[in-house]
Amino acid sequence: MKVRIMQVGPIGTNCYILEDESAHQAAVIDPGGDAPRLLAALEGLDVRYILLTHGHYDHTGAAAELAAAFPQAAVYIHEKDYRDVDPGLFPLRTQLPNARFYGEGDRLVLGTLALEVLHTPGHSEGSVTLRCGDVLFCGDTLFAGSCGRWDLPGGDHETLAASLARLEALDGDYKVCPGHGPLSTLARERKINPHLCRTAGL
Description:
By secondary structure, this protein is an alpha/beta fold. The chain is 20% helix and 31% strand.
């Protein structure tokens, strides 16, 4: 498994390219913008998925262009960030009317890799964390030393607290790949993050 990170879009969203090197298959997680850069980075790869941790514009900005460039790639988002939402903040439906939906417990196969969907709402109603091996792609649910905001439409602080508690309670350690900012580990966040719910409330 190979993971590459690129900061894209107007506010430097972390976009991840997850690759199964043996099968030369890839998934793009949160392509928030800068489609030409992403297309150059993806050259030669069989892109099977475009995966969105939530529907905010800064995480979906290049999804439609990548979908057009890779027609074999399925675009996945949680339905609650796609239907009946503000198109200014959640624009994907207007840009890409044929997205697919995933939710709690779904699994996607990428070569020899498997990604499991954990529904972790609170930043938005449809926020998910994608677990692949010992890596968590958390979107804007969990950051290094912090967490996502809950004051935007669809956000809720109690719901986010429950999602953070769920991540904190996962067995073992994981690499934490957030939607913005530096990478971390779950072990580190359990020790230092004031928003994890066993040690502090939001």
